[in-house]
Amino acid sequence: MREMERYTMAEKIDQIRCPTLVIRAQDDPLAGGAVAFYDALRCPKKLLEMSNRDGAGDHCEMGNRSLLNRRVLDWLDEILGQPA
């Protein structure tokens, strides 16, 4: 994990231009920077927060992957202009 700390998007985040979906699970210990990353984006963006109430609050939303998949696909439909 310490090795991963060397990698950062700080110098690159302003170059992101495409629509970006940021996903944050409520109890994911690795998602601590998700909101700061989202806030720093200057492109079309959406923050998708997954909760324990929905069974998707753990790392990688493992308790409810079907809900995650549905929400990601709904976002793609919005971005690509397809009806939901």
Short descriptors:
84 residues, alpha+beta, flat
Short summary of the structure?
InterPro entries: AB_hydrolase_fold (IPR029058). This protein is of the alpha+beta class and 84 residues long.
Could you describe the 3D structure shown?
By secondary structure, the chain is α+β, with helices and mostly antiparallel strands. The chain has one domain. It has helices at 34-40, 65-80, and strands at 20-25, 45-50. It has a two-stranded parallel sheet. The longest helix is centred in the C-terminal third of the chain and has 16 residues, at 65-80. The chain is flat, with a radius of gyration of 14 Å. The protein starts with 19 loop residues before the first strand and ends with a helix. The relative contact order is 0.17. The mean pLDDT is 90.
